[in-house]
UniProtKB/TrEMBL annotation:
<feature type="active site" description="Proton donor/acceptor">
    <location>
        <position position="270"/>
    </location>
</feature>
<protein>
    <submittedName>
        <fullName>M14 family metallocarboxypeptidase</fullName>
    </submittedName>
</protein>
<dbReference type="InterPro" id="IPR000834">
    <property type="entry name" value="Peptidase_M14"/>
</dbReference>
<comment type="similarity">
    <text>Belongs to the peptidase M14 family.</text>
</comment>
<feature type="domain" description="Peptidase M14">
    <location>
        <begin position="26"/>
        <end position="302"/>
    </location>
</feature>
Length: 302
């Protein structure tokens, strides 16, 4: 597969990134989909702006929703969504969780939810940010990705004090049709096709595995949507299974979002919205179910 930008074998420079950006079209509005949805939550939660992105004259406020009456003596739970803007159910799932279940842990735990980490990419249904950087490979201090740097700064005071962190993602057909070919072209390497997993799965941190926690989340989500089976090699996205529907990955070493809090229990969800066996509503519900199961397990095993 040849991507329409760049020269095979040569990494992109500024010219190629500008050409890629010119192909990216705004398809929805962060202000309508996220900021407006957060406004009613102010009745029960503290909503704050933890930063802002300014891209080509467009300003994107970055918002976090916190438990009212935050107490340092309570365990802290973190939910993040929209690290990749095209992964719709992560954002909608975080918002739906807040609306329907956000008060369930009131008085028992502190809750911090960032429903949309990457608003520019949300509007354009893209994986990368404006500078063709993947936020989910850049969560570290001094990150070149503004989305990642802002979230790292927000969560830095909590590092090592977070009980549970769940990061909500999707795996879609566009991974193979667009995003992985674009990545290969950007980096000047050959594109190696893979199989898109048909179903829900989780990504555990290979350096800090919590297999029982992962299994508890999988068992809950299996009541809502189907769990991804392994491919013919016994893998999901090239990784061997830790257990059904769970793979291990170098989450910390690769700069992924789920590792930045140093939470005792952490996971990354992956929903497959393009499956004929599920619906967009079920995908959102799978995210909500995963969050509730993760919280339930973490608090029971704190």
């Amino acid at each position: 597969m040849t991507y329409p930008i760049g020269t095979p074998g040569q990494p992109w420079g500024d010219t190629e990134i500008a050409a890629w950006r010119a192909r990216v079209v705004k398809q929805r509005r962060y202000a309508d989909d996220v900021l407006a949805a957060v406004e009613p939550l102010r009745a029960d939660f503290d909503v704050s702006e933890y930063g802002a992105l300014d891209y080509d004259g467009e300003r994107f406020p970055l918002v976090a929703v916190r438990s009212r009456g935050w107490r340092e003596s309570l365990p802290t739970l973190v939910v993040t969504g929209g690290v990749h803007g095209y992964e719709t159910s992560g954002v909608l799932g975080a918002l739906q969780f807040l609306r329907g279940h956000g008060l369930e842990t009131a008085g028992r735990a502190n809750l911090l939810v960032v429903p949309c980490v990457s608003p520019w990419a949300w509007e354009r249904i893209q994986r990368w940010n404006r500078d063709a950087l993947d936020p989910n490979r850049n969560f570290r201090p001094g990150s070149p990705a503004g989305e990642s740097a802002a979230l790292v700064s927000l969560l830095a005071p909590l590092r090592g004090r977070v009980l549970m962190h769940i990061d909500l993602h999707e795996t879609t057909d566009s991974d193979e049709a667009e995003f992985r070919p674009a990545l290969a072209a950007r980096d000047g390497v050959p594109f190696e096709p893979d199989v898109v997993p048909d179903g829900f799965y989780l990504v555990d941190d290979a350096d800090q595995p919590q297999p029982e926690f992962q299994r508890a989340v999988i068992e809950a989500v299996a009541q809502v949507t189907h769990i991804a089976p392994p491919d013919a090699h016994g893998h999901i996205i090239g990784c061997p299974l830790q257990s059904p529907g769970v793979i291990s990955f170098a989450v910390s070493k690769k700069g992924l979002c789920a590792a930045i809090t140093g939470a005792r229990f952490s996971t990354t969800t992956e929903v497959y919205p393009d499956s004929p066996r599920t619906t967009p509503e079920q995908c959102v519900q799978a995210q909500v179910t995963a969050v509730r199961a993760a919280i339930g397990y973490a608090l029971a095993n704190a």
